[in-house]
Amino acid sequence: MKNIVFIFRLILLFLPVILFSDFNYRILVSEEQNFVVREAVWNPENIFNIKSGLSADLKLLGETTFKFENFKLKFSDLATMPVETNGNFTNSLLEAYLSLNFYDFYLDAGKKRIVKGKGFLYSPSDFSLNQSFETTQNKDEVLQFKDGLWLTGVGYYSGIGNFSFYYIPDLAISNEAIERYFTKGQDEIYLLSYSHSLDFMDVGVVGAYSGSLKLGSYGSFRLNDNFVFYTDFAFLERVKNYELELKTYPYVGDIYQIKEIELSNRFQFIFGVSFTHNNFGLMIEYFYNGGGFEKSEFDKYQRDLKDTVKNFDKTNPVSIWNVGNSARIIESKGSLSLSQHYGMLRLYSLNLENFELASLVISSLTDFSGRFCNLVYYNIENITLGGEVFVAYGEPYREFMLYGEKWGIGLKAEVVF
Questions:
Q1: Mean residue pLDDT across the chain
Q2: How far is CA 38 from CA 7, 56, 183, 191, 237, in A?
Q3: Amino acid 3: pLDDT
Q4: So what's the pLDDT on residue 188?
Q5: H or E, element range at 3
Q6: Distance (Å, rounded) from C-alpha 135 to C-alpha 138?
Q7: Which of 173, 306, 373, 380 has the largest count of CB atoms under 10 Å?
Q8: Distance (Å, rounded) from C-alpha 268 to C-alpha 231?
Q9: Which pLDDT score is estimated for 291?
């Protein structure tokens, strides 16, 4: 009885909001199945017990927006149920914010997703999201599942552009249930931005402070209705790089230890061109990553890795230690960070009746390894069916073969209400 009364009170609370606002909602149900083959040279005889195989997730995304004359309320929630016997149900409040407009000023408060930058593969100036997109999918399709940040922000629309400031507080969550069913923690960020758009170009400048200062800028130039050039760059905080250092000890032998190398302030840069014609589009991007290995450093790491794998003996603790340190360097760097130079080419469909097609190639321009992806979706009104396949290519000790995912197939069925 108490539960019924509680639900009735909620209905009475939100009924005026629904009746007197521009009310929109969207419910997305998605079932994804992925089969991935995981294999890498730094995992001889599978000592790290990394498994290939099938994983499946059932996702429920709900979005609700209430629009009034001077303010907007938006809620977005994602529930994920792994379709496995040992999988754990998770839920995340992606967005829940109030946006208030008063003359040329606006105020945002709550949990919101802030997206900056211009790059498709990666946007260096996107200091809040800081997400790479190694996918053939449209960027908006990926972003809808991304978590927002708890924040308070103010902005001003002027004749010379849009100015905004956001404060993102530090949020430390030690309760496992809150992280699993509601929201995750976040670091403190002060975010200041400016953007301005003209008929043929747009520009933006972003500054962020989170223990260190970051400065970035982005922009695009429309040559005509078909050609767009764009760029995105950032000066980032100092980071530590790592290398393997060989030391010989009496009675023990050769041990590879991890040695820290502190870099100067990093610089990252994206330059791209987008071309559209009839029902297809083409994107080409170059990404410079100042925090990656120089070619000589990467060559040294590959030689050291080969040595640890060649001399691997699972009965020898020192040998296991050496291979483990080799793998930790890859883990510490993450995807799209081992090299300094990357290239991307994406060919995709536009406004094809019922079909969405896309192909993507990402390559390290240091060792010319890479990843090739293809996507095919078929849309019937509010139903989407399709799949994606990817394969990593290159010699065994090249960058994209070291990430551990050799090839995979994904299938998706999606319904939107």
A1: 89
A2: 47, 16, 30, 38, 33
A3: 44
A4: 95
A5: helix 2-19
A6: 8
A7: 373
A8: 11
A9: 86
pTM for this prediction:
0.90
Residue 290's Cβ-count burial label (10 Å; 0-12, 13-18, 19+) is middle
Question: Is 331 a residue whose pLDDT tops 60?
Answer: yes
Q: Which residues pair with 36 in a beta bridge?
A: 53, 408
Residue-range domains of the chain with CATH: 21-416 (2.40.160.100)
| Higher local confidence (pLDDT), 203 or 265 | 203
- Angle, CA of 62, 67 and 72, to the nearest 5°: 85
From the list 116, 120, 29, 42, the residue with the least C-alpha distance to 81 is 29
| Tens-digit pLDDT profile for residues 44-68 | 999 999 989 888 999 999 999 999 8
Using the structure block, give the residue that is written with the tokens 């949020």: 171
Short-list 203, 146, 194, 193, CA closest to 167: 193
What does the alpha-carbon distance between residue 27 and residue 77 come to, in Å, rounded to a whole number? 10
**Token couple for 15:** 């009924």
What pLDDT score was predicted for residue 263? 73
Q: How far is 388 from 135, CA to CA, in rounded Å?
A: 9
**Sequence-distant (≥ 6) Cβ neighbours of residue 388 within 8 angstroms:** 135, 136, 137, 373, 374, 375, 376, 409, 410, 412
Rg, C-alpha atoms of the chain: 24
**CA pair distance 230, 411, nearest whole angstrom:** 32
Per-residue pLDDT, 21: 59
Q: Give, as one character, the DSSP assignment of residue 254.
A: E
pLDDT (tens digit per residue) in 181-222: 999 999 999 999 999 999 899 999 999 999 889 999 999 999
Is the pLDDT at 168 greater than 90, yes or no?
yes
By the 10 Å C-beta count (0-12 exposed, 13-18 middle, 19+ buried), 375 is classed as buried
C-beta atoms surrounding 40 within 10 Å: 21
